[in-house]
Amino acid sequence: MMLEPSIDELQEKIKSKYTLVTLSARRAREMRYAKDMLIENPKSHKLVGVALEEILAEKLFVKEEDSK
């Protein structure tokens, strides 16, 4: 069974696996209450999967801060 989107594709958008997991879990909790998806017709039926699809579609991202 192949998971979609793949971890390799996702890590092109967000380098850190920890950040990827944290962001998608936080977004899934948000969607649980708000029901507002940033993409149309997601493939996944689960909220974490939808969050990962949003990351792949570049609708959900992490703002990088300058380290000074």
UniProtKB/TrEMBL annotation:
Per the record, GO CC terms? DNA-directed RNA polymerase complex
EC number, UniProt record: 2.7.7.6
**Can you tell me which residues the record assigns to a coiled coil?**
none
Q: Which Pfam families does the record associate with it?
A: RNA_pol_Rpb6 (PF01192)
Q: Which SMART domains is this protein grouped with?
A: RNA_pol_Rpb6
Q: What class of enzyme is it?
A: transferase
- GO MF terms, alphabetically ordered: DNA binding; DNA-directed RNA polymerase activity
Q: Belongs to which family?
A: Belongs to the RNA polymerase subunit omega family.
What function is annotated for this protein? Promotes RNA polymerase assembly. Latches the N- and C-terminal regions of the beta' subunit thereby facilitating its interaction with the beta and alpha subunits.
> PANTHER family recorded for this chain?
DNA-DIRECTED RNA POLYMERASE SUBUNIT OMEGA (PTHR34476)
Q: How does it assemble?
A: The RNAP catalytic core consists of 2 alpha, 1 beta, 1 beta' and 1 omega subunit. When a sigma factor is associated with the core the holoenzyme is formed, which can initiate transcription.
Q: What is this protein called?
A: DNA-directed RNA polymerase subunit omega
Q: Which organism is this protein's natural source?
A: Virgibacillus salinus
Taxonomic classification, please? Answer: Bacteria, Bacillati, Bacillota, Bacilli, Bacillales
